[in-house]
# Entry
Amino acid sequence: KNEVEQSPQNLTAQEGEFITINCSYSVGISALHWLQQHPGGGIVSLFMLSSGKKKHGRLIATINIQEKHSSLHITASHPRDSAVYICAVWRMEYGNKLVFGAGTILRVKS
Amino acid sequence: GAVVSQHPSRVICKSGTSVKIECRSLDFQATTMFWYRQFPKQSLMLMATSNEGSKATYEQGVEKDKFLINHASLTLSTLTVTSAHPEDSSFYICSAIWGVNTEAFFGQGTRLTVV
# Structure
């Protein structure tokens, strides 16, 4: 079993829909990243959080440390949101080493 | 967020030659830089971790003589793929942080094709 599990693996949505991507982890962490990778390959850090909730524009990330679960929400989705969304955690025991989920491929249709 | 610049974005080289990829943190001092390799439709695979002024720490199975990493300053790390072979063709991406377990910022990646 992977230490970081994401669901769903693939997601197709209509423009305007509310989208949720989930991330569960099975290890102790110091923080969790949500990353966005576009078809060209570059990766953008969307959020890093260790508790509660963060919001940036149409993106909202939440984390529940007790349940070892995080969600990324996209409100009013748009075709330009189409990308791979990756959850990654800083494991407590590893020090400086990110552990990545497999990613969620999101396609938003107009 | 902070900016990490990776260069080149795309390179084609002949078998047996060496290729150098640069990773620069433009607006912060990166105490640690990471080099990843990504195969198609797969997640990032950590190759090595480099701290400024010290030798890189390589992950198991990564040949340190083949993938030379230098982190000479707080803003620059380089990855040199030596004696490249077609099986080295891949997408390589770097990331940089300041401190420990802080927010990681990623370069744009380098698509290496060895012919």
About this structure: DSSP finds no helices and eleven strands in chain B. The longest strand of chain B covers residues 44-51. The CA atoms of residues 5 and 24 of chain B lie 5 Å apart.
